[in-house]
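Exercise 7 asks you to align residues with tokens for two separate proteins.
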Amino acid sequence: GYPDTEYADEARKRLGIIPEKSLDEELFGLFQDAEKQYLDYQNYDLALSKFAQIVDMNPLSTYATKSLYAIGWIYDNSLHDNDKAMETYQRIVEEYPETDYARQVKKKLDAVERAKNDAEQEKKKQETEVAAPDTSFEEIQLAEAQPEETEEVDVSEMDKEAYYEYLRKEMTKSNPRLKYPERIIK
């Protein structure tokens, strides 16, 4: 016979015999192809569709998680489509929570979430706040120009109260009126 031809594969399929070229090999080939499109040709659309095809073909394979991560990465770093990237990362965390990929993107998602919350807090604060009349524009600029002492804080270890306390501290850091209260109280 001709065991290695596609006819043989087709015959096996019809007879209910699993073809010799396993799904895993097929996924591996597709994955390599998708990577090549991305890395060698910067053909983002084709790479994205190939990675997506892998996820559809076998969501349980390790290539599915790898592919989702690659999709997120392309949106994040090459296409700079933050929403699509975060959507993809969110999917990894929800569907593959036990993987290293999920752990990696979780940090990113948390950071984005924090940034979003900080921005909203800041906006609310600015809407309700009226600048003290004796704080000149130059003083505010000067205060904002002061480099902050930033230290890496691991918020994932904090409980709710500690986190709020940390946020409060972070927010007062960049507010010149809170930093130099003596200006207001004359």
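Second protein for Exercise 7:
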Amino acid sequence: APRTKEQLIALLRDEGERYAQWLETLPDALLAEPMVMPAGITPSTKSRFEMLLGVKEHEMHHRAQLMLMQRMVGLVPHLTREMEARIAAMQANKATA
């Protein structure tokens, strides 16, 4: 179903939080269990924890793609804008101190 920007942001935030809460319930022993990869994959085993980290790595990959696309069309990604604002505020505070 089509969603608004606000609905998408809320969905991502809510589902991300739900996933994080589920991860917190997993015992360390379960996360340490080795998982055997299909033939030809290196490394041949990974821990369950490493496999679950793959979800975050996948998210980071797509986030980087979006930031690159923003830059390609002349936009400044929000994280860069926020960092630039913090730097400007620090410089302004130094100038008045």
